[in-house]
Task: inverse folding
């Protein structure tokens, strides 16, 4: 993705690119690769233009938030420096990034002129290119560190699995009875009716009796079962009902919820624990989790040991 060749980019070129891309309203007009450094990270200069860009991207121009922008920029610069070390990036300098940005937009313009397919935007804004390149660099760096640095042995993965075992619990089989009041166009009437039902439950009326009174009308009462096989559909389309149902033990009922155009009260008639997914089943998931965890630790260590110096006017 990255080009080894670097070209020098002057202010007039950058300004013309920004105007062409319609970025002038969001990127500060003083963007230049040649401005004086305002900081260094392990001796790599940070220019004011990149600092302003990161502030702009993260909307961190407000008072008291400069430190967040600085921390973010240090993390980006450390990642870029690692990219250079592992031959994933030609340079960590801002001028090099601007060169790649300009070259990529030229390439996209040529692809379009040739009537070929271009994936993503026809032209990048500087903000989007900065974010996309960093995201791609992180993915490549994770992959490289996983191959060269990280401990991803079977012993380590099994330890990760044991430590995070609750993340691999099999969805309990939960049998539900659901009392419903369709909302339709009369939300207040439906709410009033479900409130009457809820108050009856609070006054020790049997949920099963209330359910039996309604069970022959599918618009008023239904039975459902949540399982490992269908839980993703519940999570995707009926998140609140799924979340509340998983809190219930057998014999308990929920508060009033809105689900699929109805006010509902959910009752757990039976709950069967299914145990845990085996290591062999979730090994790939554990592997990816271990990479993420070790990558975070690796970058945190770089941040802790980095030599960072800011100019006085930026530090205050």
Result:
């Amino acid at each position: 993705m990255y080009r080894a060749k670097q070209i020098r980019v002057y202010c007039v070129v950058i300004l013309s690119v920004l105007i062409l891309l319609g970025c002038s309203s969001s990127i500060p007009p003083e963007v230049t690769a040649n401005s004086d450094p305002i900081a260094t990270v392990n001796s790599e200069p940070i220019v004011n233009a990149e600092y302003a860009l990161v502030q702009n991207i993260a909307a961190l121009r407000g008072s008291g938030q400069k430190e967040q922008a600085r921390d973010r920029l240090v993390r980006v610069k450390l990642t870029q420096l690692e990219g250079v070390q592992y031959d994933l990036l030609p340079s960590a300098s801002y001028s090099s990034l601007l060169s790649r940005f300009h070259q990529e937009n030229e390439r996209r313009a040529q692809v379009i002129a040739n009537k070929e397919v271009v994936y993503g935007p026809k032209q990048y804004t500087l903000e989007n290119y900065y974010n996309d390149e960093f995201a791609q660099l992180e993915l490549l760096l994770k992959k490289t560190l996983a191959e060269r640095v990280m401990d991803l042995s079977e012993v380590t993965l099994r330890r990760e699995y044991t430590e995070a075992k609750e993340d691999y619990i099999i969805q309990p089989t939960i049998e539900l009875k659901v009392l419903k009041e369709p909302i339709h166009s009369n939300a207040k009437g439906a709410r009033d009716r479900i409130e009457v039902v809820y108050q009856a439950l609070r006054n020790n009326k049997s949920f099963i009796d209330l359910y039996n009174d309604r069970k022959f009308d599918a618009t008023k009462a239904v039975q459902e079962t949540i399982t490992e096989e269908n839980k993703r559909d519940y999570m995707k389309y009926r998140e609140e009902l799924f979340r509340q149902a998983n809190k219930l033990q057998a014999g308990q009922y929920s508060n009033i919820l809105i689900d699929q155009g109805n006010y509902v009260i959910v009752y757990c008639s039976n709950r069967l624990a299914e145990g845990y997914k085996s290591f062999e089943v979730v090994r790939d998931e554990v592997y990816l989790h271990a990479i993420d965890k070790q990558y975070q630790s690796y970058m945190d260590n770089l941040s802790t040991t980095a030599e960072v110096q800011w100019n006085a006017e930026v530090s205050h």
Observations:
- The longest helix spans residues 279-305.
